[in-house]
Each structure stands twice: as structure tokens, then as C-alpha cells.
Amino acid sequence: MQQIIPLIPALPLLGFLLNGLAGKKMGKNVVGALATGVVAASFLLTIGLFVMLLGNPEPLQNNLFTWLQVGSLQVEFGFLVDRLSVWMMLIITGVGTLIHLYSIGYMHEDEGFHKFFAYLNLFIFAMLLLVMGNNFLMMFFGWEGVGLCSYLLIGFWYTKRDYADAARKAFIMNRIGDLGLLLGIFLIFQQFGSIAYADVFGSAGLVDPTSIGLITLLLFVGAMGKSAQIPLYTWLPDAMAGPTPVSALIHAATMVTAGVYLVVRASALYDLAPDVLTVIAWTGLATSIFAALIGLGQNDIKKVLAYSTVSQLGLMFVAAGVGAYGSAMFHLTTHAFFKALLFLGAGSVIHAMSGEQDIRRMGGLRKTLGTTHWTFLFGTLAIIGIFPFAGFFSKDELLAQVFEHSPLMWALTLFSAALTVVYMVRMYTLTFWGNFRGSKHQAEHLHDSPSVMTIPLMVLAVLSLTSGFLNLPAFTHAQWFSGYLTPLLGEAVHTMSVSTEIALLGIAFMVAVGLGLWVWKHYQKPEQVPAEDEAISGFAKLTGNKFYVDELYNAVFIRPIEWFSRLLYTIVDAKVIDGLVNGMATLVSQLGFGLRQIQSGKIGTYLFLMVAGLVLLLLFNVIW
Questions:
Q1: Mean pLDDT lowest for which of 12-21, 120-129, 242-251, 471-480?
Q2: What percent of the chain has pLDDT over 90?
Q3: How far apart are CA 253 and CA 95, in angstroms?
Q4: In degrees rounded to 5, what are phi and psi of residue 66?
């Protein structure tokens, strides 16, 4: 069985090469089928490994060759498939297959169809390397790979300046986080003499606490960039510039979950750094609330979902920060299903609305987009935590774990969950209820998406409904997912009484239902449709403009750097460097001009020079 491990990332890589090199000649049907088929095949192979690990939790190792050997550093190009990585592989390839299938319909009219699928396949390949590698360098290789792919996909329509700028922003902000990750890996090698997971985690207790604290903090800086946490979160909402399937793939199954995976994977180190865990928990909580507040004021359907992703990732970090790694992974799993569903549903709405993304120009779409509406409703109910949808169970467990750690933190986390209810139900109601507010042309062409796009929606809707049953509340003693991860993360300890857990569960449920119903009724009134940007003021303007964080970054970082760059250009480049280079060129040119006079081809000049030379020689002999 170990022999099939390399095939799992190799298949998407093969799809990338074939579609990238010959896709233009193969036709769109072949390109779409090939790209989707290779990811689906990887998914089937992963199921085989998953079933095997269910019977025997011993990790599977597969070293292909020695990748790097410098001095005492030896790095294998090898894979580690354990219960954590195989679970991530299932999500990446499973949700990835559905997104590929959906993309066949969504991108069918695009001229860059084959290029788009080549990039998608490369994205899956990079993400699989990230989670399957058995050492930090392999993970970093995949980490940079998904960064490159996100740049290519976010800026897929690069001829539009805004899209190209969004791609650059994502690339640059992630590099800031990557620097922290890279420094962390260097420090790991210095302290452990190895960067292989087995060596590092096996001897974590032998390294001094200060070094462990610094390593884990640097690794978290990398996670902050990739998983869009304060202050490195502003790239993620701008990443909406890419095609909608890209948004679904980045936000649900791949790139943004890498930071959470990193923290959980390195939990053996984080367990030894409680102060860093506290930093992670409060950073995640601050991010979750801040992003949710911004989500309240957004009117672009994809921007609302983008800030929702930032907020939900914050909740995962809160769980990881209180040491509940299993809860973080559980919410990561359910979030992958309902967030992919919501993004693809938003894509279906945008498809029907001829590219319109502003929910103020929608309304009443449930009457014409039946499948999209029902599946989108499932996703909304899941993310706001309505029983028995998936988010109810994953948020309930997360909140219970946080309450055991700190009641104050629980109250703030519940506040963030309540904000989720407000912005999600607001978006759902304005999109699907009330009267249609679009143009007459849009109204005449409203239609549901083709089956190649609605089938993935239905599958994800079912998963959004059922995946919560993987881990029922602790008092039921039916926590399959926690038991599944126990060999890796240890057994979760529950000290909370049954009555307390039921009370917490009831409070969260009542908040979701009560607030959700109020928001639903409130935004059905025509007068509650948000005003145009120019007409808003106060808190609505503040959230609509994202608390002016981008403007702050521009003022503090970008403009000073641009000013300094212009100064360097004007003085150092244009005057000093150009002056030296141009001066040398002028000097050589003048010398050449002078010397050219003695190579003029005129006999008279040559005779004159010859005589002059003889005279000089004679004078020289006479004088000396």
C-alpha cells in the first residue's frame, strides 16, 4: 500500500503537465475531464490509505530519495501518511474534485480554460506535498507552491489592473509570513540537528523552553500569513478577484487551512510553549471578531464570504490556542464543506446575474434559482450553527473547549459566532428574499446553473448537513473524530459537567436561532436594503470601508516605501549610477572619436604623424 503514496500527488502533477503543454489542442471536454479525473483518482487512492489507517494507526513512511545533503543536513524527499495528513488529503482531493467538476461549467466560455485547469491541478499537487511531507522542508516546498499557484489563479484575469494588484498583494503579504516560517525552520535545524518530523517531535522535550518558544512563535508568523490572521489578513478578501472556483478552493480546502494544519502538526512543540498558545488564542479571537465586524458592512457577496473565512479561521486558532487541536481540525473539516458550498453557490448566483456581485441588486432569487437557493440555505444554516447542520456540532465543541479554558474567552467567542449569524443571514435574505432589485435584462435571463455546477452543490450540501455527526457533544460519548485523532493528539480531557455542556449548547443554539430569525425578518423589508456607498455614514461606513486598515497600511508602509524608492531612483539611480555609467560611456566614446582621427585613411595625415613621430624620437634621444 505504501507504493501508492507517491501516486497521490503525482496524478495532479501529471494533469498539470498534460493540460499545460497540450491542453490547447485537446479540447475543453478532454481538458476538464482529465483535470477532474486525476484529482478524483487521487481521492480514491487516499480513501484506500484512510481505510488502512483506520485499522492500524501506525503512520506510513515512504522515502523516495535524498533530496538535499549539505554538511550534517540531510533531507529526504519522503512522505508521512498518518491519520492527520490522510484526513487533510481526503479534504483536499475530495472537495478539490467537486470544485474541478464545477469549474467545467463555470469556466467553459473562458479562453484560458486549459491554463486554468493546469493551475488548479498544480495547486492540488502543491497542497498535497504540504500535508504529505515528512519534514519541514517538504512542507515549505508545498507552502511556497500554493503561494505561487494562488498568485497565478488570483491574477488569472491579469489584464485587469485590479486583479493583477490583488495577486501581487497576496503574494507579497504571504512572503512576510513565509520569512517567519523559514527562520523557524532554520532555528529547528540549529536546535535539533534535523528538520524531519520524527526527529524534531521525538526530542522536543530536550530543547530549552526559550528556543521552543521562539521556534513556535516563528512558525505561527508563517501561519498568520497563510491563514490570514491579524495583521496579515488583508490579502484574503482581495483574493476574491480570481474566478469563483479559485475562491472556493483557496478558502475551503487548501491554502488558508495550511496555517491551522501547521500548528496542529507541530502540536508536540506547541504543548511545550503555553505562552505562545495564549498568543495564538487571543490573535485568533481578535481576528475572528474584527473580520466578523467588517463582514457586517460588506455588500459584495464574495467579500462577505471572504471575511467570514478570516473569522472562521480565527475560531480555529482559538481552539488550537487553548490546546484543543482536535476541535480545530473538526471545525476545519466542517468549514471546508460549507464554505466551499457557499462560494460555489455564490458563483452560481453571479453566473445567473451576469456577473453582478452586489447583494443590493439581487433579491427574490429563490424563485428562479431553486437548487442554488436550497443548497445555499444549507450552507448558511451550517455556518451559523443550526441543529443538525455541521457547524452546530463543530462550534459547540469549540465553544465548550474554550469555556473550560476561560469563560471570558468563551463569551467573546460566542459574540463572534453571533456576528456570523448576522452577516450570513443578512446576505442570504438580501440575495434570495424580497423583491428582485436587478435590471430588466438580468431578470429576463435568470436561470439556475447547469447540472455540472449544481451536482457539486448538492454533494456539499449533504456533507454540510451530515458531517457534524462525526463528533457529537461529549456527553453523548459518541465522538468518533476525537477518537480517530487520539493516537496523534492524545485523548481529549473533558472536566465539564453534562449540565454545563448542555447549557452552553442551548445558549449557542438560542443565539443562532433567535438572532437568525430577527435578521431574516428585518432584511426582508424594502427599506432595510443597504444604501449606496456614498449615502452611508457612521458605523456602517466604518465597516463598509473595512475600518480603513488598507488605508492605514498604505500610509504607514506602502507610501513611505514608495517615497523612499522614488528618492533612490531620482538621486542614486538617475544621478549617481546613471551618471557613472553614462559618464564612462561618454569617455569611451570621446576616446574612440579621438583615436578615429589617426585611422582616417588619409595618406597625408599618416605622413604627418610619421614625421611627427620621428621628430619626437629625435628630440627624445637628444634630450636624454
A1: 242-251
A2: 73
A3: 6
A4: -80, 115
The 3-class SS string of 227-284 reads CCCCCCCCHHHHHHHCCHHHHHHHHHHCHHHHHHHHHHHCHHHHCCCHHHHHHHHHHH
Q: How far is Cα 265 from Cα 276, in angstroms, rounded to an integer?
A: 15
Residue type, 235: W
The pLDDT tens digits for 501-532 are 999 999 999 999 999 999 999 999 999 999 88
Whole-Å CA distances, 10 to 2, 38, 127, 184: 14, 9, 12, 29
Q: What is the DSSP letter of 385?
A: T
The x, y and z cell numbers of residue 556, run together, are 504607514
Q: How many CB atoms lie within 10 A of CB 10?
A: 15
Three cell numbers, residue 44: 480514491
What pairs with residue 66 in β-bridges? 76
Three-state SS at 133: strand
CA distance 414 to 400: 10
Indicate the residue type of 134: N
DSSP state letters, 434-450: S---S-HHHHHT--PPP
Q: Which residues, including other chains, have CB under 8 Å from residue 20's CB and lie 6 or more apart?
A: 114, 115, 118, 122
- Closest alpha carbon to 401 in 452, 298, 473: 473
Q: State how far the Cα of 306 lies from the Cα of 246, in Å rounded to an integer.
A: 12
Q: Report d(CA 621, CA 520) in Å as an integer.
A: 110
- Quick check: helix, strand or coil at residue 345? helix
Mean pLDDT of 30-59: 95
Q: Dig out the grid coordinates for 273 from the structure.
A: 510553549
The residues near 49 (Cβ < 8 Å, ≥ 6 apart) are 1, 4, 5, 8, 60, 81, 86, 89
Distance set, CA 76 to CA 66, 73, 163, 294 (Å): 4, 10, 38, 44
Phi-psi region at 183: left, alpha or beta (left = phi > 0; alpha = psi -120 to 50): alpha
* Whole-angstrom distance, CA of residue 219 vs CA of residue 268: 13
